[in-house]
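queue> pop job 88
queue> type: inverse folding (structure -> sequence)
queue> payload:
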């Protein structure tokens, strides 16, 4: 079983930055893709960004392109999400996800979820 532990959420003013991290442990099967989803109150879980085993294979939601950057350190089994130029509409609980094998842009096939970390952007 895979465990995911997230860190880095918090409260920031619009235009500010935050960096999320997510460390995987337990039974991970390489290669595996990692990514982030978010969920605002009263909405479904929305794809944010994902990265494949080999850096350079990345996908972003249109709403975060040019502002968010996903990266990973395979030696540490950790994925990062650098969030710049944050907007109030980015406010949500952010969830880390792992999928064994190919990269993902939906919740289908996700093998493990983190517990979620709150990001709040004030206007």
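queue> result:
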């Amino acid at each position: 079983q895979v465990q995911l532990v997230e860190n880095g959420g918090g409260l920031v003013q619009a235009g500010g930055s935050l960096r999320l991290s997510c460390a995987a442990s337990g039974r991970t099967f390489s290669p595996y893709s990692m990514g982030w989803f978010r969920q605002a109150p009263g909405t479904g879980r929305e794809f944010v960004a994902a990265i494949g085993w080999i850096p350079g294979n990345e996908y972003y939601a249109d709403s975060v392109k040019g502002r968010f950057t996903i990266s990973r350190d395979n030696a540490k089994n950790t994925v990062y999400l650098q969030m710049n130029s944050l907007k109030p509409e980015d406010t949500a609980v952010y969830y880390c996800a792992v999928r064994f094998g190919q990269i993902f842009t939906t919740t289908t096939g996700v093998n493990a979820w983190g517990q979620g970390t709150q990001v709040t952007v004030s206007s």
